[in-house]
Amino acid sequence: MGLKTKVIQTVLIFFAGISLVQADISGESLYMQNCMVCHADDGSGAMPGISDLVSNRSWSELPDELLLERITNGIKSQSSPAPMPPKGGNLNLSDNDLLRIIIYMKNEFQK
Question: How far apart are CA 72 and CA 91, in angstroms?
Answer without folding.
Answer: 8
